[in-house]
TrEMBL record:
Protein name (Swiss-Prot/TrEMBL): Glycosyltransferase family 9 protein
Species in which this protein is naturally found: Geobacter anodireducens
Keyword Ion transport: no
Pfam families recorded: Glyco_transf_9
Superkingdom, taxonomy of origin: Bacteria
Lineage of the organism: Bacteria, Pseudomonadati, Thermodesulfobacteriota, Desulfuromonadia, Geobacterales
UniProtKB keywords: Glycosyltransferase, Transferase
Length: 373
C-alpha cells in the first residue's frame, strides 16, 4: 500500500454528478489514511455540498478554467494547490485535471488516460506514478475502486455520501410546515441540465396525481433556481388535482438530500438530484433517454461492489432503484438528443405514464411511509 500521506487532493473538474459519485473515494481514503487531510478541487457550482462533509478539510474552486491566480483570487487556484499535497488524484482524463495533479502532488500522483495512442500514454506516464486507463463501460462510481487498487487499498463497499447539518434540517422542517406537508410525501424533480433529458410536463403532472391518489402521498416538486424551471413548476402544478408543494430552487444540495431522506418515493430524470436520492436510500424511479446506464445509473449504496446494469436498455431494478428506458435499438446512443427532435429525445418522449406507474408498483414494499420530522 502507498505510504501514508499527510495531505491528499482529489481533483474532479467536471459536473455535479461526477463530483457526487466521487464521494466514495473520500471514505476509502479516510479509512486507509485516517490522519490525512483531504481537500477537493472542483468547478465552482459543482462541489459546494462538500463543505459540510466532515471528512473534507477544504474545498477549492476552479472558476472559468484558470489556474493563473491563487490564494483566493477569482478564477485561479494555483497558489492554493502548488506542491502542497503528498498525494494528488485526478478523477478525469482531462488535461486540466492532469496539470492540476502535476502541480499539486509532491510524492504520488494518480490519473486516468483515454486512447491507445502511444504519445498520449507517454506524456501522461511522465506526470503520474499510477496511470489508469479510463474504462468506457464501467460505472463512474467504480472509478473510485480503480484508484484504490492503484494505491494498494482494499475496498469492500462504495458509498455515495452527502452530509447535512442542523441548519439544513431546520430549513427543511420550516418548508414542510409552511407548505402544510404533515404526512408522508414523495418528491418529483422534473428537470435536468439539458433539454434532451426532459420528459413531458403534462405527463409529470398526470404521474404526480396518480401517485398521490393511489398511495396517499403528498406530492413535492423541486427545481433549480432557474427562472424557466420555476415558471414551468408553477404552471404545471396549477394543472394538478393534488396540488404539489413547490421547492423553487431554494434548497442547497445538502438540504435536498435531507428532504429526500424523509420522502417515501422519488421520481426523476437523469440528473444530479437522482444521484442524491439514490444515496439517501429513497425508493426511486429514474427515467433515462440516450444516457449510457452502465456508466450513469443511480448507485445503490447497499448493492454489490460490482453492480452494473445487466441490460443495455429497458426496465432494470437494483434494490430500491428502478431505471426506466425504452427498448429502442438505438438506446443507449450516449448522444445529446436527436437533431430533428427540437432538443428533446424521442426515447424520452416515448415513455408513458402507465410504464412509470408499473415501475413504481415494483417498489411498493420499499416505500413504507416515512415521518416528516
Amino acid at each position: 500500500m502507498t505510504a501514508s500521506p499527510a495531505s491528499i487532493l482529489i481533483i474532479n473538474i467536471r459536473l455535479i454528478g461526477d463530483v457526487i459519485l466521487t464521494t466514495p473515494l473520500v471514505g476509502i481514503l479516510k479509512n486507509a489514511f485516517p490522519d490525512a487531510a483531504i481537500d477537493f478541487l472542483v468547478n465552482r457550482g459543482t462541489g459546494e455540498f462538500l463543505e459540510k462533509d466532515p471528512r473534507v478539510r477544504r474545498v477549492i474552486y476552479s472558476e472559468k478554467g484558470s489556474v493563473a491566480a491563487g490564494g483566493g483570487r477569482e478564477g485561479g487556484y494555483l497558489g492554493d494547490i502548488f506542491r502542497r499535497y503528498d498525494l494528488a488524484i485526478t478523477m478525469n482524463a482531462s488535461d486540466r485535471g492532469s496539470v492540476a495533479a502535476l502541480l499539486a502532488g509532491t510524492k504520488t500522483r494518480v490519473g486516468f488516460f483515454v486512447g491507445e495512442r502511444w504519445y498520449t500514454r507517454l506524456w501522461k506516464r511522465l506526470l503520474f506514478d499510477h496511470l489508469i486507463p479510463m474504462p468506457y463501460s464501467t460505472h463512474v462510481a467504480l472509478l473510485n475502486k480503480l484508484v484504490a487498487n492503484a494505491l494498494g487499498v482494499e475496498v469492500g463497499q462504495l458509498r455515495v455520501t452527502i452530509y447535512w447539518d442542523g441548519e439544513d434540517e431546520a430549513r427543511v422542517d420550516q418548508f414542510l410546515a409552511h407548505a402544510g406537508v404533515t404526512g408522508p410525501f414523495f418528491v418529483i424533480h422534473p428537470f435536468a441540465r439539458w433539454r434532451y433529458k426532459y420528459w413531458q410536463m403534462e405527463r409529470i403532472a398526470a404521474l404526480s396525481d396518480r401517485v398521490a391518489e393511489r398511495y396517499g402521498l403528498c406530492p413535492v416538486w423541486t427545481s433549480s433556481p432557474s427562472k424557466e424551471e420555476v415558471a414551468l413548476l408553477e404552471l404545471w402544478a396549477g394543472q394538478c388535482r393534488y396540488r404539489p408543494a413547490l421547492v423553487k430552487g431554494e434548497f442547497s444540495l445538502n438540504q435536498m438530500s435531507c428532504l429526500l431522506s424523509r420522502s417515501s418515493l422519488y421520481l426523476g430524470l437523469d440528473t444530479a438530484i437522482t444521484h442524491l436520492a439514490a444515496a439517501a436510500g429513497v425508493p426511486l424511479v429514474a427515467l433515462y433517454g440516450p444516457t449510457i446506464g452502465e456508466r450513469w445509473s443511480p448507485w445503490n449504496n447497499d448493492g454489490p461492489l460490482a453492480q452494473q446494469c445487466p441490460l443495455p436498455r429497458g426496465v432494470q431494478r437494483n434494490g430500491h432503484i428502478v431505471l426506466l428506458q425504452k427498448e429502442y435499438p438505438c438506446i443507449p446512443c450516449g448522444k445529446a438528443g436527436c437533431d430533428d427532435a427540437g432538443g428533446e429525445s424521442p426515447c424520452m418522449l416515448g415513455i408513458e405514464v402507465d410504464e412509470v406507474m408499473d415501475a413504481v408498483a415494483c417498489l411498493e414494499e420499499n416505500f413504507a411511509p416515512r415521518m416528516t420530522t
